[in-house]
Amino acid sequence: MKEPYRPRQVPMKKKRKIRFDIISIFPDIFDSYFKESLIIRAIRNKIIDIKLHNLRDFSLPSGKSRRTIDDRPFGGGPGMVFMIDPVFKAISKLKNKNKKNRVILFSTRGKKLNAKIARRLSLYDQLIMICGRYEGVDERVAKYIADEEISIGDYILSGGELPAMILVESISRFIPGFLGKHDSLEEIKGSYPVYTQPAEFSPGKGRTKWKVPPVLLSGNHKKIEEWRRKTRS
Question: Range of 204's domain?
């Protein structure tokens, strides 16, 4: 008797997930940003996982009132510098040796963040980010602990918390499922002017109306695509 046809079972592709471990002395700064919009949806959908760690939890004992994570710079100078000991302890505890990981230190001397770097980092399973403050971080962290240093631009910030938020989102956009559609990536579709209702907007009596380019209202998709190609940056 002929066996009934049974369709071949194709194994489902395992969903990718990336874990971000962020080390900061102000972990509460991240609460609002990571609890909104695409980030919180991605966390709930188990596309990304974000863990915040207070560097002071890895500090040196210094009496009852203070957990030491910084000290004056050798050679003199203003401000305080993050000590290597707490950072080393934090990385040693957080790094999952069974996962493909990368340790990132935010620094004005680092490689400037761009889409190419974000795409490359999105292929890791775990990213550990060190957010400096004050006069910076002991140089031995950059030399022996961090895998790379990253800067988000040619300007100075008070700490690495904002760069960490930017890096998390720029990387997450490359993870399948984070955006509604893969085509939403500007790296794929490019960046061009976009408009929505109303087609004409009046900024006030006697002033010229602000109009949507007629081609976008034409319904001619070929001409619309040509217009977008010409205006794409």
Answer: 190-231
